[in-house]
Amino acid sequence: MNRLYRLTLLGLGIALSACTLGPDFRSPDARLPDAWALQQGPVRSQPEAASVQARWWESFADAQLSALLQRAVAGNFDLQLAASRVQQSRAVRLSSGAAQGPSLDGQAGYSRARNSEEGLNDPSGNAGKSDYNLWQAGLGASWELDLWGRVRREVEAADAQLAGSQALRDGVALSVLAETASDYIQLRGAQQLRLITEQNLQIAQRSLTLNQTRLDDGVATHLEVAEAASRVASLEARLEPLRLRERRLGNALALMLGQAPGSLQAELGEPAEIPQGPLRVPVGLPSELARRRPDIRQAEAQLHAATASIGVAEADFYPRITLSGDLGLQALQLGDLDGWSAHRFAIGPAIRVPLFDGGRRRGALQLREAQQQEAAIAYQRTVLGAWHEVDDAMAAYEAQQRRHDRLQGAVEQSRVALDNAELQYQEGTVDYLNVLSVQQALLSNEGELLDSRQATSLALVGLYRTLGGGWEQHAGGA
């Protein structure tokens, strides 16, 4: 046992003094600007000192939207799949880490045997002339001395892969939040457009009734009545596609929440206003983007794993030393198995030296190096793509805000024009074509204003999505 003790200490000393092959990973430079480039003019999404709001959906001040987002994170199947992949990565990490320590196995066995009379020595001492029993029990241990850091690099790569799967889960959470909010905004937009169409239909029906009365009185013509009736039919035809769009958007929301089609009709069937966000949005500093955006963190983790894999491939060129030991009991009779004379042991190192493999290890190393180069390029591409997305999202939000202001003024003037046209028509100073033309202009402007409100809210959701805000609130539960 003293020899075993000395060998164990020797192995520990060698392991502690071992080196680690391969390049050490360093976080790459994201190469982001010091400040975001701002558009000229009334920039309302100008960056402020504050960072991106984590619970950005609360800026819309819509309690139903906030509740739907919470339910989507809890019930969305894509997010559940991503969480399952995180658990798989944790299991891989556990398996890789186990290789850093020794393994210990217990065994026990019994066999009934008979050796050849002409063969090797018969352990029973019967020269192969009779059967014998063999009883065995013992413990076996082995430990690979990680002299070159192969196992350490494998664990490092597993850690990086786990971080990558967690970033992927966070990215799915971010997508679920943004897509649920977008579907909800579009649903409210479709409902508001239907209300506007129904209001214009009521106006058109009153105009048709008025023209019919004027025709009976001999004041209006059949042409004016036909034009009014055509207007009524055209508006009625617009309602069905809008109802269909509401149903589809409601089903899309139900799918995001992991629920059956039509399950949200009771709570979302009543029309409500499109949620509007703030005029000014703090977007933080560009340097924060690499920490917030899940896709950038995932790309960095993939680069880390690829870098660690180079060390694994380099270690394969060097010898592997394994310490192994076997301690047990062996006897021909079960009653003799507990005696000191039945004990046995074996201990010693084993070394495996690579000599020739036809270039397999060299090819594996070159593959790992090329994969690291690919991961580095992918990281830079991801960062640059994120930069472009943020710039486009900021510009879109600013443009939609300016468009909304112009259209709001156009709708107000169109309503004044319609009131005057209807009054002049009743007084007989203009014909119905003028009223019809003004009605059409008002409906068009109201539709565009509604579309602008929806587009502005969607642009804000898109801005928050590109900035990578929101997933932090749900990463633990996802």
UniProtKB/TrEMBL annotation:
GO molecular function: efflux transmembrane transporter activity
Keyword Aminoacyl-tRNA synthetase: no
Membrane-topology descriptor: Lipid-anchor
UniProt superkingdom: Bacteria
Subcellular location: Cell outer membrane
Recorded family membership: Belongs to the outer membrane factor (OMF) (TC 1.B.17) family.
Protein name per the record: Efflux transporter, outer membrane factor (OMF) lipoprotein, NodT family
Organism of derivation: Phytopseudomonas argentinensis
Lineage: Bacteria, Pseudomonadati, Pseudomonadota, Gammaproteobacteria, Pseudomonadales
